Amino acid sequence: MLDESGAPRSATVMPNPLREGLAEERVPEPAVMVIFGASGDLAHRKLLPALYSLTRDRLLPARFAIVGFARRAISDDTFREEMRAACNEHARRRPIDPALWSAFARNIFYHQGEYEDPAAFVALKQRLADIEKSLGLHGNRVFYLATPPSSFASVIRSLGQAELAPKPPPPGAPKPLGAPPPFARVIIEKPFGSDLETARALNRDVHEALDERQIYRIDHYLGKETVQNLLVFRFANGIFEPIWNNRFVDHVQITGAESIGVEARGGYFEQAGSLRDMVQNHLLQVLSLFAMEPPVAFDPDAVRDEKLKVLKALRYIPASDFEQYVVRAQYAAGSSGGQAVRGYREEANVSPTSTTETFVALKLNIDSWRWAGVPFYVRSGKRLPKRVTEIAVHFKEAPHLLFGRRGDSIRPNVLAIRIQPDEGIALNFGSKLPGPAMEIAPVSMEFRYGSSFGVEPPEAYERLLLDCLLGDMTLFTRADEVEASWAWVSRIHRRWAEDAAQQESGRAVLPTYPAGSWGPAAAEKLMTADGRAWRLP
Ligand code: NDP
Ligand code: BG6
Fold first, then answer.
1. Rounded to the nearest whole angstrom, what is the distance from the C-alpha of residue 228 to the centroid of ligand 1?
2. Contact 374, 249 (CB under 8 A)
3. Candidate from 188, 278, 422 with most ligand 2 atoms within 8 A of CB, to mutate
4. How far is the CA of 377 from the centre of ligand 1 (A)?
5. Quick check: pTM over 0.90?
6. Under a CB-based contact definition with an 8 Å cutoff, are residues 441 and 410 in contact?
7. pLDDT tens, residue by residue, 277-313
8. Which residue has the CA at smallest separation from atom 5 of ligand 2?
9. Residues assigned a catalytic role
10. Residue 488: which of 280, 225, 180, 243 has the closest Cα?
11. Which ligand is nearest to the CA of 146?
């Protein structure tokens, strides 16, 4: 893989022979990270805590600065104090270490400005130059767009106008003599568009100012250890790949369940719904990693090429049998964790007549040689009984049962990959019960991250921020992947828009489910119609 300067990436991340055989050397070059939206929820809960934890684990370079950008007029010191409180509350390693914090905080700065104001970006450019000069930095920059999605295009335009993020030389251009030019990378938060058209338009805007090699579209699910482990599980072990196909797999279930409701994000969720919020990005990304062909190399484009093929092979849902493939619903009042909770329509900033879905269940088919005939059932919802994300691979039954009635309790094997919480992998199979009779009982063989490794996995944002600083795009989504997943999802939204017109005239009703249940009856029917049932995760 080439970096932005056209040099092989290994030339910028030199292996350290002393660490050979121990762990991968992953310390990036000195840089400054500008966070647009620095006073927001994401910066407080995830970004600054992740950067602090990386510092604590000595994974950031010694010369590293953070510049927060937002509208409020506050001083560097006030911003540092706010970030200290945020890290104390949210960092993986807390409480924070006071000595480490003072060293870390010395290189945190705040810059006041409006996204739409070109002068603010000119001033930012000067501020960055001053900071870089005083800290001996060489101009490597990462810009993190933790802003409302409606501002993504204007921030990128302003970056371009102020020449803050120049495009790298084209691939294959003669290499400059001496040190490679500094990098300028841009991390863009989700949602990347709200349908196919807006995602395409945003890609066009972004590509006017930046080269795709500078763009890091973040999907935090790809930073989760267990999601990455899918690649290791499949491609570092010889025994699974031969059965990872329609000869052995009956169907696959992917569940992304949350027990929380929309919390304080009613305004955002009203415009999104579960299909946009969880499926278009996180769950389709997980599905594409699960189902892709082995890439020719573990490099960003080889991996993303294979994921893209899966997204492009998703069969469009037939208009005639739509209800047999797609179920949506909204939570009504119920209970969560033993407490009575209100329904979605009673949440803050939610319309009392809202038709936004808080639950979706789908049946997908991947039209490929490997997966032809294997349905993938995907469900996601808020206010379900518990928080759990898992992939369950249901294998076909043994071709011939030898044990007559005693074999009644034999169930097809299930490989359950638990993404969160209690991360791990379990294989269920039938075993003989001890005793003289040939009785069979289901048992499970389990691997748990916690007990096997005894360490807490890093936060997804830690991994992804570090990867961006290292210039590793493998776990970031490429423009064509985003468009392919929107192409599939937007057809469902178009169909729902037609249904909404009917609902307004009172002819169709959005189903509900009581908060704390596993969704509406129609989700069960989606499975029973195929002679299957959702697994209780
Ligand atoms: P918030 O609304 O909490 O923060 C928005 C930030 O943008 C604030 O710092 C605000 O600063 C700043 N801002 C807004 N408008 C302007 C403007 N015109 N000029 C300058 N600054 C402005 O959003 P979140 O932190 O929740 O989300 C940020 C992004 O991250 C969104 O794209 C969201 O979809 C995404 N995301 C968030 C998640 C979360 O858990 N919060 C999870 C996954 C993705 P000011 O102080 O000046 O108002
Ligand atoms: C975010 C969604 O992207 O992912 C939220 O906007 C959702 O609605 C969250 O709650 C789930 O992330 P995690 O890591 O808690 O599973």
1. 27
2. yes
3. 278
4. 33
5. yes
6. no
7. 999 999 999 999 999 999 999 899 999 999 999 999 9
8. 277
9. 282
10. 280
11. 1
